[in-house]
Amino acid sequence: MDFTFLGDMFASLLKGLPLTLNFWVLSLLGGGTLALILNLMRTTRIGNAVAGAYVFVFRGTPLLIQIFMIYYGLAGFGFVRQSFLWPFLREPYWCGLLALILNDAAYTSEILRGGLRAVPKGAVEAGRVSGMTRFAILRRITLPLAFRQALPAYSNEVISMLKATALVSTITLMDMTGIARAAISETWRAVEILLCAAAIYLAISLLVTRFSAWFERRLSPWHFGRTTP
Amino acid sequence: MEFGKLALLGFGPEGWGLVLVRAGLMTLAVSVAAFVFGLGLGILIAWARIGGNAVLRRLAEVYVVVLRGVPDILVIYLFYFGGRQVVTAIGTGLGFEGPFDISGFVAGMLAIGLISAAGQSEVLRGAYQAVPKGMVEAGRVVGMTRLTLFRRVIAPQAMTTALPGMGNQWQSVIKETALVSVTGLVETMRQVSVAAGTTQEHFLFYAAGAVIYLCITTVSDQIFRFAERRSLRGHPQGGM
Amino acid sequence: MTLTRSTFLRAALAAAVALTAAPVLAQDKKLVFATEGAFPPFNMTRPDGTLYGFELDMLDEVAKRAGFEYEVISQAWDGMIQGLVDGKYDAVVDSVTITGKRLEVVDFSLPYTTGGSTFAVMKESGLELDGTGTFVDLTEEAPTEAAINAIAEKLAGKTVGVHVATIQADFLATYLEPKGVTIRTYPNGPDVYQDLMNGRLDAGMASVTNISAFLEKNTETAMATGPSFKGGVMGAGAAFVVQKGNAELADKISAALKSMSDDGTLEALSNQWFGMVVTPKL
């Protein structure tokens, strides 16, 4: 094995790390916010139907097709190019981010919905009895309980999104995967390059797994001191 | 978009309808093959993690962690670029005369199956562990053999628990097949890209592709739900 | 339970099928050629999946003269050369230009087009480069520098799109990127034109032949501009690609190309597909 090459490769792949992290963090933030809105919408009948259709479409189709539809598909319409959104949609960065946010929101909203369903009715009633406002109940009872419930599933989604960011390389963006693809076509040393890139992604997702396991334990006071969960 | 453009999706000589349907069937075929391959491997991995010795358990754990932590597209690329050397090595090892090649279909199936096996093994392991220990002990007490115990006590219950998770795994497999066009397989994603590039009607063809995927995911979702309802018959929470 | 058993059986069956399908022996005498099927007018795909274009017609004639049976498969550009190196097919015919770097891993036949490369822009952008219609040989230092400086001045701060891992991408990275031009690389060739028309790119770079095919459909809105670059990183023309050391096939193809060039067949094909002569005298 050629260690100088591997070293150089790691160095140049790491140049793509900021963009990968950027997409990852922002799509989780944006997706999480949108997921919350989708769940609030579910309290009305029409909102429920809209949110249901949204989740159905975005979970039922591959992310790659969503990225292409936003990047190449939308730009094909004249009115999109005339609109105020064009300065954003013109840039591959915003198209990629938009696709990731929309995709993440669909999955996260289902995870959150499962968490919300698991919130005991009694807890909410107790809040109401003690005179909390609806917003206070949401903020201090429902969401924290739902979030704790949804945490294991959500940490899977967090790792999925890290992996999903690799697909933005298909619309000319130079994230870690984009750099790896370009390097492959230049040097033809595909296996070494791909293994380097895989190692970096793996290291990050291991960190996340460790952190979320610790976080879950922290948020489960009733598990303290017990050897099995 | 004018409605005249919809003719591009038609079944006439100038329409792409027929090839899109064929590509959709190819997506379905490679998904089924990959899911089944992943199931076989997933069972082995789950078994290694539950009942294997320390080395096997460690190997299985590493496999799951690696495959779940690396982007699918990198795994598929690795499989495409590096897979042939491996196949040739195995082939010559078994005494066949080279050169060896694997078809786009087999390559896609193997790549997606390897990824899916990691997820499926986790679902299966979780389902196995959810079987109440008392039941297993009860079976042992009445003198069931290990096989009988598995066949009549563990498997039926674990299957009920595993079905929703397996449904999710199946849905992921369908969507992951959109990434295998590099192996040369003409499935839905590759076909809509070619059509979009040729006709310059990107939105139309990607939308058509999305509809094909939605059809496959919706129909299979219904089938899984039906199976879930059937498997819940006779359970206290059945008939939900 | 029956479900688990039957699915397991199916898994075993699929594995067995996979194993038996794996060794495909190369005793099949038909030569397999790979092309992209999305690079007009060299190679394109009809709705029914059949391939057509300049290279397909040329290949047909080459096969007749060299006396071999063949079939053509389509393969994405990503991994095209890798597939050849791996022996998935015998040759590539996809407007692949001969370059020193590629010669390290594969071999080429004689070239069949030598058109040079240039830029495409949208007319409404008002962008125009100097030297349209002239040729610049990248092996001649002084004219190259003058031409590059003139172009860099116009394109500084702008975005130019190009097909990934092509000689044009090499050219842009070598000559224009250091001078402040943003380069965007696309996995598929036609996407460059799509984004040019969408207004995401200020200019696109491709071979003269490829650009002329694009302009044919968009005469009203787009145009070619700037000199046509040849030599150096731009390589020595497009040729059939074969595996390293497969001189037998390369020679057979080269001999057929030579005879087609001698009797004017190649020139006629060029006129038919490009409306001009881009083929060399061999």
From TrEMBL, chain A:
One of its GO terms (biological process) is amino acid transport. Coiled coil: none annotated. The keyword Cell membrane applies. GO terms for molecular function: transmembrane transporter activity. The keyword Ubl conjugation does not apply. Residues 13-212 form the ABC transmembrane type-1 domain. Its main location: membrane. It comes from the Bacteria. Keywords: Cell inner membrane, Cell membrane, Membrane, Transmembrane, Transmembrane helix, Transport. The chain crosses the membrane at residues 20-41, 53-73, 164-184, 190-209. It is found in: Cell inner membrane; Cell membrane. GO terms for cellular component: ATP-binding cassette (ABC) transporter complex. It is a multi-pass membrane protein. Belongs to the binding-protein-dependent transport system permease family. HisMQ subfamily. This is ABC transporter permease subunit. It comes from Pseudotabrizicola alkalilacus.
TrEMBL record, chain B:
Its main location: membrane. PANTHER family: ARGININE ABC TRANSPORTER PERMEASE PROTEIN ARTQ, CATIONIC AMINO ACID TRANSPORTER, MEMBRANE COMPONENT. It is a multi-pass membrane protein. This is ABC transporter permease subunit. One of its GO terms (cellular component) is ATP-binding cassette (ABC) transporter complex. Keywords: Cell inner membrane, Cell membrane, Membrane, Transmembrane, Transmembrane helix, Transport. CDD domains: TM_PBP2 (cd06261). It comes from Pseudotabrizicola alkalilacus. One of its GO terms (molecular function) is transmembrane transporter activity.
TrEMBL record, chain C:
PROSITE patterns: SBP_BACTERIAL_3 (PS01039), TAT (PS51318). PANTHER family: AMINO-ACID-BINDING PROTEIN YXEM-RELATED, MEMBRANE-BOUND LYTIC MUREIN TRANSGLYCOSYLASE F. It is a multi-pass membrane protein. InterPro entries: Glu/Gly-bd (IPR019594), Iontro_rcpt_C (IPR001320), SBP_3_CS (IPR018313), Solute-binding_3/MltF_N (IPR001638), TAT_signal (IPR006311). Coiled coil: none annotated. This is Amino acid ABC transporter substrate-binding protein. Belongs to the bacterial solute-binding protein 3 family. Pfam families: SBP_bac_3. GO terms for molecular function: ligand-gated monoatomic ion channel activity. Residues 1-26 form the signal peptide. The keyword Transport applies. Keywords: Glycoprotein, Ion channel, Ion transport, Ligand-gated ion channel, Membrane, Receptor, Signal, Transmembrane, Transmembrane helix, Transport. Residues 30-276 form the Ionotropic glutamate receptor C-terminal domain. The keyword RNA-binding does not apply. Residues 30-277 form the Solute-binding protein family 3/N-terminal domain. It comes from Pseudotabrizicola alkalilacus. It is found in: Cell envelope; Membrane. The lineage of its organism: Bacteria, Pseudomonadati, Pseudomonadota, Alphaproteobacteria, Rhodobacterales. GO terms for cellular component: cell envelope; membrane. Residues 41-86 form the Ionotropic glutamate receptor L-glutamate and glycine-binding domain. SUPFAM superfamilies: Periplasmic binding protein-like II.
